[in-house]
């Protein structure tokens, strides 16, 4: 099954709900876009859908009470900690922004994720 591609309108909407912060990096992921802080992904765009990373209790709350869905870029294999916002929330961008802020607060406490290239560069410069 091919990965869904975002249309320009979805890219613009995604950009509008991600806060402007020099620590945040937006880059390609799954043929779409994702936002990272300290190397850890906290939100992304998948076709027309926005997903976010949350602690388990908050993720379950969205799934059970708000009509969110598990984020499964590969069918039948949901990504742990991630949830897709309900499509109707596109009409409520402030709600999305609030949840993205919650995600940032949680993810920024995680240890910095260093790419394999950077790890290798560090080990070779120590020699």
From TrEMBL:
Keyword annotations of the record: Membrane, Transmembrane, Transmembrane helix
Record carries keyword Transmembrane helix: yes
TM spans (from-to): 29-52
Residue stretches making up the TfoX N-terminal domain: 23-105
Protein name: TfoX/Sxy family transcriptional regulator of competence genes
């Amino acid at each position: 099954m091919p990965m869904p591609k975002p249309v320009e309108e979805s890219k613009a909407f995604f950009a509008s709900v991600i806060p402007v912060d020099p620590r945040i990096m937006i880059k390609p992921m799954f043929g779409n876009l994702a936002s990272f802080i300290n190397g850890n992904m906290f939100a992304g765009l998948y076709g027309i859908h926005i997903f976010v990373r949350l602690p388990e209790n908050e993720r379950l709350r969205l799934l059970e009470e708000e009509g969110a869905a598990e984020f499964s870029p590969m069918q039948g294999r949901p990504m742990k900690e991630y949830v897709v916002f309900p499509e109707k929330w596109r009409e409520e961008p402030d709600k999305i922004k609030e949840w993205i802020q919650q995600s940032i607060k949680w993810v920024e406490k995680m240890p910095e994720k260093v790419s394999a290239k950077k790890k290798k560069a560090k080990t070779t410069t120590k020699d």
